[in-house]
């Protein structure tokens, strides 16, 4: 049965237990969603009032079909989001994950961070090689090009919409749209890490979008322990061993504190 925690003392106790599991784990994985960036001021997708998909039409703005109908309109939306993200800073949750990774790598332990977020905040916080399953909004690639052709966009806001490559080809945002496959190399690396994870944390995701939502199930199938950190119940909650109800910017630093205490 998943544990449902209410009081601060219960949360602390659960975090001590999770820190112990981490210390005994050969391989740790963390999979993040939009909620981990909410405290940096970046809207999530499925919040009923403030979520992006409550206010905008994903078919027009986040699909190949919508893009070819009106590339400038789609780019305007991504450019506005880039401007919001440019003002945002990594929060205490991002920083705690980067520090955890640094500690783990320093001890020669495996730590994998996979994210559905395209905001780049994990890297800005110091995470070394986050697997960005849904791409990165700071990059673009030719509409008819390969994933590997992605180039960082130098300017924000963009001087011209839609932007074009030096050879005149139309550029698209380097993000995954509805109906598109994830990059198979990245997804393969993430699924393999999930299968190896003795401990996998799902932080700030509604766990509704596959294949990212399959990562914790891959860990569970191999006998791994899955912990969810989210203020709300999600579709994953009934399947996990521990549900910590709270904001990632508050819970992750507490967990890091527990880990650091056990390490000293
Ligand atoms: P959602 O918007 O679906 O879910 C965000 C989750 O974060 C919810 O479960 C919230 O309860 C939780 N949350 C909110 N604030 C939080 C906080 N401070 N700390 C922790 N959790 C918090 O976002 P994702 O699950 O990331 O895909 O959505 C997955 C994908 O759906 C996105 O990557 C995007 C979207 O369509 C593409 O664009 C391809």
Shape category: elongated
Strand order of the largest sheet: 1-10-9-8-2-3-4
In angstroms, what is the radius of gyration?
A: 19 Å
The counted number of beta strands is 10
In helices, the fraction of residues equals 40-55%
Structural class: alpha/beta
Number of helices: 11
Report the mean per-residue pLDDT as an integer. 95
Q: How is the biggest beta sheet arranged?
A: 7 strands, parallel
The proportion of strand residues reads 15-25%
How is this structure best summarized?
With 264 residues, this protein is an alpha/beta fold. Helix content is 41%, strand content 17%. The relative contact order is 0.21.
Could you give the topology of this structure?
Layout: E1 3-4, H1 8-24, E2 27-32, H2 35-38, H3 52-55, H4 58-61, H5 64-69, H6 71-86, H7 92-106, E3 110-115, H8 121-125, E4 131-132, E5 135-142, E6 151-152, E7 171-175, H9 184-196, E8 199-203, H10 215-221, E9 225-229, E10 242-244, H11 248-263
Parallel strand pairs: 1-10, 2-3, 2-8, 3-4, 8-9, 9-10
Antiparallel strand pairs: 5-6, 5-7
Helix pairs in contact: 1-11, 7-11, 9-10
The chain binds 2'-O-acetyl adenosine-5-diphosphoribose.
Describe the model:
This protein has 264 residues and is α/β, with parallel strands linked by helices. It is built from eleven helices and ten strands. The strands form two sheets. The protein has a seven-stranded parallel β-sheet with strand order 1-10-9-8-2-3-4, with helices on both faces. α1 crosses α11 and α9 runs parallel beside α10 (215-221). The longest helix is centred in the first third of the chain and has 17 residues, at 8-24. The chain is elongated and about 55 Å long. The two termini are 32 Å apart. The mean pLDDT is 95.
């Amino acid at each position: 049965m998943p544990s449902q925690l209410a009081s601060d003392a219960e949360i602390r106790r659960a975090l001590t237990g999770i820190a112990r599991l981490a210390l005994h784990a050969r391989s740790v994985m963390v999979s993040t969603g939009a909620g981990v960036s909410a405290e940096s001021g970046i809207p999530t997708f499925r919040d009923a009032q403030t979520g992006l998909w409550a206010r905008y039409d994903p078919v027009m703005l986040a699909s190949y079909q919508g893009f070819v109908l009106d590339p400038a309109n789609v780019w305007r939306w991504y450019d506005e989001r880039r401007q919001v993200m440019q003002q945002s800073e990594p929060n205490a949750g991002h920083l705690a994950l980067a520090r955890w990774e640094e500690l783990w790598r320093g001890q020669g332990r495996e730590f994998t961070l996979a994210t559905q977020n395209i905001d780049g905040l994990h890297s800005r916080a110091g995470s070394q090689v986050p697997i960005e399953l849904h791409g990165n909004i700071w990059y673009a690639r030719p509409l008819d090009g390969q994933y590997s052709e992605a180039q960082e966009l130098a300017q924000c806001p963009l001087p011209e919409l839609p932007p074009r490559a030096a050879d005149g080809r139309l550029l698209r945002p380097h993000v995954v749209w509805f109906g598109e496959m994830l990059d198979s190399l990245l997804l393969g690396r993430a699924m393999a890490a999930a299968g190896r994870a003795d401990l996998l944390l799902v932080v700030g995701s509604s766990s509704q979008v596959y294949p990212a939502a399959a990562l914790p199930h891959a860990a569970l199938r191999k006998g791994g322990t899955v912990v969810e950190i989210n203020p709300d119940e999600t579709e994953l909650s009934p399947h996990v061993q521990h549900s910590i109800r709270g904001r990632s910017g508050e819970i992750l630093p507490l967990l890091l504190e527990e880990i650091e205490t056990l390490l000293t």
